[in-house]
Every structure is written in structure tokens, then in C-alpha cells.
Amino acid sequence: MSGIQARLNAISAVINYKPSHAPLNYHDTKPTDIFGANVFSDKVMKERLPKPVYKSLKKTIELGEKLDPSISDVVANTMKDWAIEKGATHFTHVFYPLTGMTAEKHDAFLVPDGKGGAIAEFSGKLLIQGEPDASSFPSGGLRSTFEARGYTAWDVTSPAYILENPNGTFLCIPTAFLSWTGEALDKKTPLLRSNQALNKQAKRVLKLFGVETKLPVTSFAGAEQEYFLIDRNFVFSRPDLLIAGRTLFGAKSAKGQEFEDQYFGVVPRRVLSFMMEAERELFKLGVPVKTRHNEVAPSQFEIAPIFEIGNLATDHNQMIMTTLRSVAKRYGMVCLLHEKPFAGINGSGKHLNYSLGNADLGSLYDPGDTPHDNAQFLVFCAAAIRALHKYGAMLRATVATASNDHRLGANEAPPAIMSMYLGEQLTDVFEQIKKGKVNNSKSKGIMNIGVDTLPPLPMDPGDRNRTSPFAFTGNRFEFRAVGSAQSIAGSLVALNTMMSESLDYIATELEKATKGDSKKLNAAVQTVLQKIIKEHDAIVFNGDGYSDAWHKEAAKRGLPNLKTTPDALPVLTTKPVIDLFTKYGVLSEAELRSREEIYLEMYAKTLKTEAALMVRMASTIIFPAAMRYQSELAAACANLKAIGKDFKMSTLEDITAKLRSMQTSVAKLEKLLSVEGKNSHAEAKHLCDKVLPAMNELRSFADALEVVVADDLWSLPSYQEMLFIR
Ligand code: ADP
Ligand code: MG
């Protein structure tokens, strides 16, 4: 189908949309019955596994003790029986390659029994280890193709689960993905390693405070996921949305988000139906999704779960992304997880709420009532201040992608400069510590809401500051620079590791100063806190992160401002970062180099694809439409002339000029695209500094044409149609 007809069909399909399947039977199935129904959960294990096996497995899951391989056959068998009862025919080791995606390869349980029949089999060996062909996953030089073998290793700490399809189900086993030499080819392995490092160092600090806990200290993560929903029919008519996940062309809609009528607004009916089904699917998988709401931009929404242990939260966030995508299709929509699908309105991010603790201790970032009394809390805060000051650039590198570049620093997401918002109360405490005295903290104020029938609400000590990339929000930090399409693993690994290093430093200082004498602890804590805040308070900033004044001030303070991905990624292989990751056994130098290489390549591939697509769309869609309009106008002029009216048509001149500019622009972009960089960094730099501006230039001419060419000749669905017809 061509031209305007496709666009009209899309609109008609949206307007006449009817659900393709029956509504959910929500009366009969209570959420409490559904929750975790498809998870090989603690409850299922307790019921089905022999007691000693259950106990042994539990020790591995909860206390992080080594898995006893002798129990694996029993666990595998029980898991298989449970899965088959739930309709499973296959199992898969689920893993998380460096593309940020979720990967799976299915194997049937059935094997021929030699007598013409078949039996279902699943051994401990198959549960513990898999061998997917790794050759097509990026390894960044860690493994050459002739050594394509990679293996997956069961992550006992993240429960297995069942995924459903109308035609059957299959068992999913979360795994780590490594090369045959043991190098991490994935996002999970370093995360598990960083949790171990964190546990060790946090426990040293806690021990000094007389806190003993049997459970490991771990990271907690809660990821707020933003996304757009667009009717599928629009996507089919827009090659850019289909292939790049974002619009490469498109004039701004007359109405955008400026009315602020969307945020927390009533959720449209079809969207709400989608949300309810997506949540139900996620409940079945034990993902504790909690909040849903309209976001700031039109057709933008958010889903957030209750926070969990970092590793589980990461797997669950991957499931959330997969589920949003697949359920949206059932409702005739496409879920766009891209960080910037539409120019001129907000993009999508993923606020990563982060804290440390465990089930015994709660959050170690919970200040209690008077923060200055709570020395332990302050020590953990100081560790974060020091960590962010030392390794902010590295943390920034973990969110560097081509798509997130459109968002960071665009005055809607935090700037690329890493700084920490502490809030008035905590800042005051640390200022007093710096001066050498801690008397009182500004006590929690009571918010006066002026309505007598309402109770007074306690004011959050870490008030909201949406412009800060790293904000203290009462009992946790909120890292706001993660992209909506990204895995949260990279940032979590960075946070865990940099926190480990700071806790290590603090523990060492305190151990030296106290020499086992707990009476000396208070003075030692004062000293170390003072030292840290004196050296590292440049990272603390409570003001407006969007302002020019801050950019100048940040430069004065020596805080890096790594604006683009090619600027940021090389940080991963600087000496301090290599030293950090190798010291705590989280990533080797080779693993870091491979990551820099892979992410640079992914950046280059994204930009090249987008640029090539722009050239094609400009030449085959936009140029012909504008040409047709140009000839219509030219014909009209000729006709007028023929009847003796010499009519000067400014539109014709305008269009002709724009068409010419667009052609020049296309040629320029094609030429720039043919240049190859001598290595991946040079290539990324070229794409960033030369190709991207040329893409923007081409877009500006095309978008200018869109607002003058006759609408019935324009075949691409417009911004207003995509964003406001639902
Ligand atoms: P807001 O939009 O106001 O930031 P949301 O409710 O959308 O709040 O999201 C807050 C997220 O922070 C949730 O996922 C929540 O579970 C998580 N969270 C709350 N407390 C902690 C904590 N101590 N550690 C980590 N995450 C937390
Ligand atoms: Mg939120």
C-alpha cells in the first residue's frame, strides 16, 4: 500500500479497534491466587523437595553458600515434574548477553525411549549448565568464533519460572553466561560478583558497629520503568519507528506536553486494559509491580515494582520489558522502550532506586529519627558521597548509549554531570561534620497542608529534586540517568563496586583507629567522616541541575561532563576503573575492554542504521511527496499564467528551496556515512561529531516540508496522529 492511503487506513484501524480476545476473567482469579503461580518459588520447593535438599538449596539461595552439586538431580527432577504439570514441554536457560536483551534457547524435555515412545527427562547436569552456541553474541574480542563455546550456569538465587503461550508453556531457568575460559559474556555474572564484594565490605563496617547479620548484605533495587504506547498501525506506516524504535522525521505537533494535562491523568481505556493484563502476567511471574500512571508526555506511561534484591530486581525488570512488549501487541499497540521516540517531548528513563541492606537490617540508608545520632547511617552515606565523587564518570559511562544520548542533558533528564542531591537536612549535618561539630540536625519539618481534617504529613527529609542524577530520597538513592531500554545491571554493578571500594576504605580506617576497642569508634567515625566530606563534598549539589550556572560551577569543581557516548565509554578502561574492578574481582581488564568495544560497536551500528534509514526515507517517501506538491503548484502557476494572471507563488519558491536543501543534505549524509573510522572509537566519534549533526540537518529540512506540503500527499503518520489518536 502506498502513500496517504496507508496513513488513512492506520487511522481508521485505530478508531475502529476492537479487542481480539475476551476480557480477563478477573472475578474468578484473584491476584492473591495468581501471584507467583508460575514461579518455582520457596513455597513450591518447600512442598516438593525432600527436606535435606530443600534446606541445602535454601542455604545457597539465602546465605550465598556454595551449591551442593549432589542435590542437583533431585532439584532438576522436581522442577521438571512441576513444569510438566503446568503444561511445559521445553526448558530454556535464560541469559542476559551484553546487548542488554534477554536470550533463550529452548530444549524439549522429551527424549525417545528406544521403544517407539518418548519419556520426559531433565538431569541436574542440564539444570546446572548449558552450552548455547555463543558465536553470535557480542564478546568484544573475549572469544574468537572458532572458540564459539559459551556456557550458561544456573543462578540458584533467581527462581525458575514458567512462561505461557496460548499453545503451551516452557520452563525458564535464569543463568549466567560465560566463555569457556570463565570470562563473563553477560550482565548477570558481574552483578553477582559485585554483590559478593559489597557483602564483604559492608559486613566489615557493620561489624565495627557491633551489627552481626547472618544474611548477606546486598543491593536493593527498584526500577521505575517509563514507556510509550503507540498504535501498531502507525508503526507499520513508519519505517523509522519499526526499525529504529524512534521517529527520525516528524514535525512537532501543535500540541505537545505543554498543557501538563497528561501526568497522572486518567489512563485511556485501551491502555488500562493493557496495563491490567501486563500486570497480571507479571504477577504470575512473581514480579511485584505496584504503581501505574500516565507520564508527562502524551502516550507515555510508567510501571514500577516494589524494590527487591538487586539481582532479582534486574531479572524482573527484564521480564517487565519483555511483558510490556508482548502484551501491547495483544491490544493492537507497540510498546516503545526507546529513550527518545519523539523529538520535542519528554523521553523515557528508568529511575534506579538503590540502597543496601537485607531482610534483617532493612535499608542501611534509613536515617532513623535524628540522623546525626545515627553514625552508621552517616558512614554509609559518606561512602556513597566518596564513591560518586571518585567514580561518577564511570557510573555515567554505564548509561551511555546512542539512544540515551538524546535524553541526558536535554533538560528533561538529569545532566550528564554526576552530582548528588542530599537535601537540606543531610547537607546541614555534613556541613557541621566538616566544621567539626555535630549538634543538632534540622529536625524533620511537618508539612502544613491547611486542611484541618487531614493529618499532618511528615516532610520527606530528602525532598524531591528532579534535576539531580543521584538523589537521596529518604531511605535510598535514586539514580535517574538509566535509559528506559537499558538493563539496570550495568549501573548496579558500578554502584555495588564503587560502594565496595569506599566501604573498604572506611572499614580499614576505622579498624586502624580503633584496633578492636569499640570505645574509640565514635571518635574514629568523626575523623573519617570529616576527612571524606572535606575531600569529596564537591559532588554534593542541591540546586537546579539544568541551569547554566551549575554547568559552570561543576566545571570549576572539576566534575566531568561527558556529554556523549563516545566521550563516556573510554572511562571504562582508564586505570582507576580497571584497578577498581580488578581489585574486587568484578571485571577483569579484558572483560572491561570487551565491554567498551561492544558498546562502542553498538553505538556505531545504531547510528549507521538510523542514518541509512533516513537517507532511504528522505529519498523514497519525503522527496516524492514534496515533488508532487511542487509540480501541482507549478501547474497551478502555469495555468494562471495561461489565463493572463501573473501570480507570484511564494510557496512554490519555498518548497523548491527546501527540496534543494534536502537533496544536498542527503548527499552530504551519504558521503559522511561512507567514511570508515580506523578503530571503533574513531568510528563512534565520527558518527557522533559528523554524522549525527548531518542527520539533524536533514531532518530539519524534511520537517519543514511536512508543515507546508499538502496533507493529502504526506504518507507518514504525523506526530499529532500518533500521539493523540488512541
Ligand atoms: P517516585 O516516582 O515517587 O520516585 P515510585 O513509587 O514510582 O516513586 O518508585 C519508587 C521506587 O523505589 C519503587 O520501586 C520502590 O519500591 C523503590 N524503593 C523504595 N524504598 C527503597 C529502598 N530502600 N531501596 C531501593 N528501592 C526502594
Ligand atoms: Mg515515579
Q: Approximately how much helix is present in the residues?
A: 40-55%
* Shape descriptor: globular
Spatial separation of the terminal alpha carbons:
22 Å
Low-confidence stretches: 446-451
* CATH class identity of the domain at 35-186: Alpha Beta
CATH topology of the domain at 35-186: Ubiquitin-like (UB roll)
CATH second-level architecture of the domain at 35-186: Roll
* Count of DSSP-assigned helices: 22
- Beta-strand content: 5-15%
Q: Quick one: biggest sheet?
A: 10 strands, mixed
Give the beta-strand count: 20
What structural category characterises the helix and strand content?
Answer: alpha+beta
Query: Compounds present?
Result: adenosine-5'-diphosphate, magnesium ion
Mean pLDDT over the full residue set:
90
Q: Tell me the Rg in angstroms.
A: 28 Å
What's the CATH H-level superfamily name of the domain at 35-186?
Glutamine synthetase, N-terminal domain
